Amino acid sequence: MATVVRTDRLPAFRNEPFTDFSDPDNARAMKDALERVRSELGKAHPMLIGAEEVEGAVLVASINPARPSQVVGRHPKGTADDALRALAAAEAAFPSWSRTSWEERVDVVIRAAEAMRERKHELAAWMVYEVSKSWAEADGDIAELIDFAEYYAREALRLAGPQRVYPYPGEEPSLRYIPLGPGVIISPWNFPAAIAGGMTLAAIVTGNTVVLKPAETSTTIAYKFVKLLLDEAGLPPGVVNLVTGPGSVVGEALVDSPRTRFVAFTGSKEVGLRIFERASRPQPGQIWLKRTVLEMGGKDAIVVDETADLDAAAEGIVASAFGFQGQKCSACSRAIVVDSVYDTVLEKVVEHTKKLKVGDPTEPDTFMGAVIDEPAFNKISGYIAIGKQEGRLVLGGESMDPAKGYFLPPTIIADIKPNARIAQEEIFGPVLAFIRAADFDEALDIANGTEFGLTGALYSTDESRIERAAVEFHVGNLYFNRKCTGAMVGVHPFGGFNMSGTDSKAGGPDYLLLFSQAKSISRKV
Ligand code: NAD
User: Fold this and answer.
1) How far apart are CA 227 and CA 216, in angstroms?
2) What spacing in Å lies between the alpha carbon of 297 and ligand 1's midpoint?
């Protein structure tokens, strides 16, 4: 391994700056990256199991949602056997990696951050093609992954240091953190770099070894990430293994195996609950309780009262509702506005939304690309049809031809009742429900009135209401007078309450403990 990073040589953590694409040099660099990546599209990539590249008998295409005929990458349709082989590889790598010093593990993670920084535009370009992120969204995703790497590296060094235990007469007590064992990372497609990579880096920097099972629609970017860890960051083979294929086969085999020590999952409520249940059942030969870290969906609300800056509120609602086509767990899908300013806020939101450009995300001025795939296109279109019954369509809603790309217009449906389906169920697309509240009290009740509790925002200048919301608005990430998306690593540790998950707070000081167990050691003196 290369030089070891010492704690005192790591500068203080700072968030990776976003790229300013209005600078012509940056815009040119991104265009070049898109061009280079375009010439790489359509290739077949293997699974990465131990030191082996495993081809697989059947290949599945990951396609460009904005141009469904364009194949981004082809990947093996992994089987349950592949999953178990990968788990065996993780198990085999565990004794050595778990005893590798914290500093050496941190060194790998820092080198990964450096490699990603150098190839930022290229990695962003893969996301533009594979999941239809705009330039800014793709750049934000890779910046977040660099942040996770830098942040967890520093947190690991904190855990590596002495932990506080009280003295006891005649003994020398201590506490140290050790890894859990071989685990499984199951990731969604919507932050294909930040979430897949963030969960993986947290697990390995604490000394675990893993099998990464990415969402099928974002497999190519996951492959690029694991290759970077192996080829550029110097990660030993077997520490991270990549198995591709359907969650119902590969994911399930990994979750069920008695050799799996933990599962870190981010995705939908339905799959999260299924994993929660299955992982809780001990299997023959299993000698531990599997730990589960489950981050799931949201039905996030922005509340606006009559004291708010209504222009700022409208801008925040639009950015939160339609950024990345509304496909963020933190996306604003409910605007809850008090009666006296409801019509004004609605009008302003509609005006802003009309200016958004929907189209090919390789174009620099595109704000919204396509939704992820045909099932998502159909599901969201179904919710738009439901919404038209449940309320008043004020913008969007028109159907588009999926053969030309899975594009959907930003859609706003007003006068939605708090218990309507489109106000309760996660749609995960560019559909915003406007809900009228009599006053602030009712708005807060409506905001809390779903089974989720992920993000939320309040626009208000009333200090007493802000104080009340800080206590009563029951979400894992609460914001005042700003949008409810865009959590920054180390600044806004991220995770939700209730059916939004286990509140793991990714990018926060408690996160690495989820991948660790504490060992108390005391010696008589
Ligand atoms: P999904 O639940 O469909 O899939 C997530 C992962 O689980 C994929 O890798 C999939 O292959 C796998 N999977 C599917 N069935 C499985 C099974 N039976 N056993 C094991 N694994 C299985 O979610 P998605 O569509 O990829 O992502 C969107 C969802 O993720 C939304 O609900 C969104 O809110 C949520 N999300 C939450 C957060 C958060 O931090 N709370 C962040 C991003 C996304």
Assistant:
1) 17
2) 9
